[in-house]
């Protein structure tokens, strides 16, 4: 997938809970821009997918076992925008362990539609993103 193809957004979801994945799946069905959604439930599967695909957004449930590992953080850092999800349990876990995941945004579970929409808005409606795509495609065509 072309990273600058603003007609489709690619998203990797690492979430071991069915309710988390279902919320993202439901959101993706109703969003105005097509979302290429790749669901993973384990860190190993997530790492494998990162090796073969490029994603615009990675949504990681930090409560998934081994999600805070440095090697996963390093693999994620090379793949676009990173969004870290926390559970709704209070108090929130300290995020100092995610040094390799910076910059990240914190998204609380259960996922709300407006919060998920805020993640996608810059990827689908940004004039800057459209300008980058236009400039890149002009260079490719030799214009």
From TrEMBL:
InterPro entries: CheY-like_superfamily
Gene3D superfamilies for the chain: 3.40.50.2300
Domain of life: Bacteria
SUPFAM superfamilies: CheY-like
Protein name, per record: Response regulator
